[in-house]
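Problem: given the chain below (444 residues), write out its structure.
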Amino acid sequence: MANNAFVNMFKVKELRDRLFFTFFILAVFRLGCVLTIPGINAALLVQYFNSYAESAESAFASYMDFFAGGAFEKFSVFMLGVMPYISTQIILQLALVIFPSLKRIAQEEGGQQKVQAWTRIGTIFVCLIQGYAITVYADSINQQVAGTIIFANKAYFKFLAIFTVTTGAMVTVWLGDQITARGIGNGISMLIFAGIVARLPSALWELYGGVSAGTINPVFAIVAVLLFIVIIGFVVYEQSGERKIPVHYAKRVVGRKMYGGQSTYIPFKINPSGVIPIIFASAFLTFPSLLATALSSKATWLQKVAAFLTYGGLWYNVIQVLLIIFFAYFYTQVTLNPTEIAKNIRENGGSIPGIRTDKTEEYLQRVLNRLILPGSLYLAVIALLPSVIQAVFKFPMSVAGLMGGTSLLILVGVDLDTMAQVEALLKMHHHDGFTKKGLKPRSL
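Solution.
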């Protein structure tokens, strides 16, 4: 009987422990996503969103729910999710590039621990700001549906709500760290992945309900589902492609032993930054969008900003595309620095065939630029799919958002990365993986 990879996953103790630990943490995360913060009447909150299903506020809440797994609309303990942490990471990474003194500190011994501490402290401040915006948002809902806020003392409610969502966001980050350290996959990505997966059943049920009610053409629904499957195939195909840069190491004698004299290669993926640019772009847009929408009742100009950043709108899509391209270049330069790669090649006596040693950095930069541009444009096209599907097929945003864009890329990207990690652990313990040849990338 041939070995079954799924059975082998639970035969290997290390892998089995990691899987069960990951499932446990995800279960805790999902529990926190349904616990409403103190001071909110959950029944009236549901009534509000059902009554204003087509309103801009409901559309905004649905957009936020893509990253919080339905927690935002429920005003739950984990309603902010990991987006404040990601937003702070972006700000700090930009600061490290802009300010050389900060970069030097980060490169010192123990520098990464300092950067992590700064990120968490910054996340707390971002959560406090967003938490205040949420209390204003809750107050505007209470004005339309009286009794949504239970406490008569508004100051007490604001303090309790801000403290709760801030603590919830930091606990969410801690849960992600635990998955990274003791579970399977990247913890932060896994939490976003779990939130998106949790939204799939309700989205499919809403699609079925729309077809049954006659508001959605059944032919359009079938076409959209087939398109969804085809897009997944294209995403998997693109994610597995890579450009191999050959490197030859010259022979050298150290003492009585000879080293080098071998050839290897540097793998550059077609899309070197993976799904990070689209996550960063979404997080970057989420922060001002949340503040503008929640505080729009306070000032007229904030209403204009909220309308300007409406999810699926023209300017939202334009800004998102530009941010995706920017973060694709930015993140690739941070993680795959051509200067550092060229330096390591030279220090180890290596060279790229046909390229002068002093031109290695320039050559690597040129190759990366040729990969990043089409890769970032590919991400941008996928990101625009929900808007296209919603406009063409007249699907609800909760359905269209899960059939393309950020959701689809995260689902596929995180799944592939997690499978690769499981595959590596199975191979390490001398078990067959999911495929006989393993999850090997395609070379170009």
